[in-house]
Amino acid sequence: MPAVSASERRRERTGRPQRAQPGAYRLEPKTRPDHPRPPCVHVGDCTMTQRSASGISAAEARLALTQPAVGAEACEFCRPDTELGLTE
Ligand SMILES: [Zn+2]
Question: Residue 2 Cα, ligand 1 centroid: separation in angstroms?
């Protein structure tokens, strides 16, 4: 009996995030309109993402983080701003 089965190795390889594809990011809206926390952008596979978050493309994620009208913050766990090259 091998310690790691072939199926487990395959799942590990295919489970890698595909961040270049549309929907690779997620936008988590405010809980309520008057909630103090701004919307939050996540990388698609972030475990901190709430269920209400919707899938967005990299371009939409970049806009959400850079447009003052949206005012979204980058999740501090998955750092989509780093992924998008928004931080120097
Ligand atoms: Zn996140």
Answer: 35
Distance, CA of 67 to CA of 42 (rounded, Å): 16
Nearest by Cα to 70 from 40, 48, 44, 31:
40
Confidence band, pLDDT 50/70/90 cuts, at residue 54:
very high
Largest interatomic CA distance in the chain:
58
Sorted by where each begins, the domain ranges of the chain are 19-84
**Mind listing the pLDDT tens digit for each residue in 2-51?**
666 665 665 555 555 544 555 599 999 987 888 888 999 999 999 999 88
Do 27 and 72 contact (CB within 8 A), yes or no? Answer: yes
Measured in Å, residue 7 CA sits from the centre of ligand 1 at 28
**How far, in Å, is the centroid of ligand 1 from the Cα of 27?**
9
